[in-house]
Amino acid sequence: MGLFLFVFPDSSILDFGYATLDNFFSLAPYIMLFLVPTITMRSLADEYKSGTFEILKTLPLSPSKIVWGKYFGCLLVVAMALLPTVIYAVSIQQLSSKGGIDVGSTVGSYIGLLMLGAVYTAVGICTSSFTNNTVVAFILAAFVCFLLYSGFTAVSKLPVFANGADYYIGMLGIDFHYKSISRGVIDTRDVLYFLAVIFLFLLITQRNIGRR
């Protein structure tokens, strides 16, 4: 990400001449498509493969405790991966000649990015619960996250939905709500959407490991 923002000429902020992190927040969701599944792919798949899942099930832990424990452990790693990127905001703020970056929009974008990472983590935990192959878990998580982020937006742009249905189809995708929060306004509907998707995938995961 640092190379994209400060080195490569086509996307360099230093060559843009305007203090903004728009390039970062537009590229970050796609970088996280590969980063988060890498973090989550071993969460349950490796337990199945190594045989430690049977030991885990003998402990006085309910399926929900196992799932939420795995989830918050992976989410903490994702949050720690995002934390150093605050340096980008500080750097651009210090390098700007006047005005600086839009603080409200930047804070909103970081909140949106964290919630996006939370959804990707839930998806990664869920796909990892279906297989004992970590590579398959990674590919499935990346594919599902891509569909959730870009799939509904792509479908909404089809001419057949140009009569007004495109707006509602777009609302089903993560991209719509991520961009809404990135404007700097925290809308309750956007927050509820992210929470609903997280709970849905974690519920599927809980049911899945409960049957094993």
TrEMBL record:
Keyword Transmembrane included in the entry's annotation: yes
Gene Ontology terms: cellular component: plasma membrane
Key word Membrane present: yes
GO molecular function (one): ABC-type transporter activity
Membrane topology reported for the UniProt record: Multi-pass membrane protein
Cell compartment(s), UniProt: Cell membrane
Segments passing through the bilayer: 24-45, 66-90, 110-127, 134-152, 191-209
Cited InterPro entries: ABC-2_transporter_component
Pfam families: ABC2_membrane_2
Keywords tagged on the record: Cell membrane, Membrane, Transmembrane, Transmembrane helix
Protein name: Gliding motility-associated ABC transporter permease subunit GldF
Organism of origin: Segetibacter aerophilus
